[in-house]
Amino acid sequence: MDTRTIELAAGQTLALALRRGDTLQLAHGRLQVWAPATELAGTQHRPMQRWDEGQALLADDSGTWQAQALTAATLLLQRHAPAWRRRWPAPPAPAGSRLARCATSSCSPPTSSS
């Protein structure tokens, strides 16, 4: 899981594209937050919330959230690594490299033969 820290000065605004499963937490400060617009009874509705320190959100769907810092604020965004990165192991080390030698034997430097 990747964590990113976002610092906002008082009055600064932010538009943040969240994906399903992202977690956004207000570590410090106060925010005014707008959820992505939804249609309600034929009209666009964009709910607003005031967040205090410690408040968090687990994104149910993808969408763009907007925020304005009421005081200096620190946000923490946690996002899972892409599925392809979780499924595929790292590529093997090139033959003869120190990493390849350490994987197959001790990490001592190779000895030269005379």
UniProtKB/TrEMBL annotation:
Biased composition (Low complexity): 104-114
Disordered: region residues: 87-114
UniProt protein name: DUF2917 family protein
